[in-house]
Amino acid sequence: MTIQKKNLDIKSMFSIHRIIIPAFMLIMVTFVPAIQAYEKGDILLRGGYTNIATQSSNGTTVNVGDKGNLTAAVSYFISNQWSTEILLGLPFEHDIYLKTGEKIGTGKAPSTHDFTPKAL
C-alpha cells in the first residue's frame, strides 16, 4: 500500500509541474520583453499611476490632501545606451482642508524645484 501511495504522490507532483512550468513560461514571455535591449531609434512608451503625497509644515492651520493620477513617459533612444524621455500626466488637483476637517478648496499645486544637494 505504501509503495502505491508514494507512486501516486510522484504522479501528482509531475502533473503539478505540467501546469506550473508552462504558466511560468507564459509569464516570462509576457513580461520579459520589457527587459529587452533597445537600439538607436527605438521608441518606448510606458504608463503608470503616480501618487503625490504632500508634506506640509503649515503648523496647525491648513492641510493639503494627497492625490494620485495617471502618468506616462515616451522615450526615444538616441544611441544604444542613451535616450531622451518626456513625462506626461493628467493634472494633479489637491484638496485643501483646515485642521478642523472643513474643505476650503481644490487647486493645482504650483511647480516646485529643489536643486539643493540634499534633493539630489
TrEMBL record:
InterPro entries hit by this protein: OMPW (IPR005618)
Gene3D superfamilies hit by this protein: 2.40.160.20
Superkingdom field: Bacteria
Record key words, sorted: Membrane, Transmembrane, Transmembrane helix
Regions crossing the membrane: 20-38
Cellular component GO terms, alphabetical: outer membrane
Protein name from the UniProt record: Uncharacterized protein
